[in-house]
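Open question from group meeting: does this chain pack into something compact, or does most of it stay loose? Before anyone orders reagents, we agreed to write out a predicted structure and look at it together. Recording both the input and the output here so the notebook holds the full record.
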Amino acid sequence: MNKKIIIFTSQLLGAILIVGLLHTGFLFARNLDFDFTLVLLGYVINFAMALGIYSVLLYFSEKKNKNLGFLFMFGSTLKFVIYFLIFDPIFMLDGKLTKVEFFIFFVPYFTCLLVETFALIKLLREMD
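Structure tokens returned:
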């Protein structure tokens, strides 16, 4: 279990760092108005949630639980709940959600989702 979590963490961290640098570079290059703290918060929260969800999936995969897909979907739902509890109220302070604000959360969300999906596929293959 420890080796798998270390591999996943390093893959997730690598993906988050690369995409995060590209994302913020794009925002700076386009001179778009954004709060770097919110960008950082978006990446950190998505990273932590993805790591937590993978840890749960890994725990249940070792118990040969066949409900990993449902747990994965529940984790994705939890991410949306976190978005609506934390980010949406901040973004809606001015009464509108801009494209920049939308992508502050959803770029790291989809990055983590992609890494999590490949990790889940690998776990499911190993269970067979």
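Observations to bring back to the group:
The chain has four helices and no strands.
Helices lie at 2-29, 36-62, 68-91, 99-127.
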